[in-house]
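Worked problem 6 (solution included).
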Amino acid sequence: MEGYDASTYGDRFADVYDAWYGDDDTTATTVAAVLAAAEAVATARSDDPHGPARSRGPTRASGTGGGPTPGGDRRAGPPPRVLELGAGTGRLALPLAAAGVEVVALDASTAMLDRLAAKPGGGAVTRVVGDMAGPLPDGPFDVVLVARNTFFNLTTGAAQRACAAAVAAVLAPGGRFVVEAFVPSAGPAGSEAATPTTPSVPSDATEPPARSTIEVRRIEADRVLLYVDRHEPATGELWSSFVDIRPDGIRLRPCHVRYLAPDALDRLLADAGLRLDHRWADWDGAPFDDEAAQHVSWYRADDGSGT
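Solution. The predicted structure is:
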């Protein structure tokens, strides 16, 4: 997509992101799962006298309210550290910081991070403008998190491999890399599925054909909102844009993703030294099966045990 770079998505969506994609019924369960994993890794590291030294941080993120602190007695040591890639406006970073986690939020879009900073508790989150492909902020991190298909915003195989290597380099021994993403699914051309689908292929075709769609998402007296996309199943790429037409002009909100099936993602991360620990169908921990539309995959960094 000509003129599109790592910051384009965030810069173009920042003003509507919270209204369109803000908190939903998965936010609380996502935060709880990430917090539990970060606490477990941090506790194991605190109990290991031979583990790498960590800078001692605050026992609670500044600007948060009262209430019990997750982790119990482990709070005598440094708090768990979480790096969120593509953190956006802070849907997950802010409640994690409020729970006492030391959160580093990385995003390529300054506009997104500015909105995070302006929210209550935003000062408790360390914000870093940067590309997920690296370099990443200095570790070690107990958990590195990339939610809502954001890993697929890396639009080349080289960028995805670079991200995997960078994550492996900043994870603590035994740390977790958790990826939430959709499962590319087979379906007929023109399918209304929420995720990209593979069109039916004629029997004499050697690869799935590209397809394009135009959808009318909203019609108002002074506004028309269109969604246009082009999908290349052969390369796993999807280009799309919301076309927001109003009397004062047209606003384009583009997106470009390169998606991977779960097994392909496993191989890419394994090459970087991150092995699949477990996979869920959602943040509640539902079993993953062939019918799942998405996955929450937990990868483990080598802890030196050889297991």
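Discussion: Residues 52-74, 186-205 have pLDDT under 50 and may be disordered.
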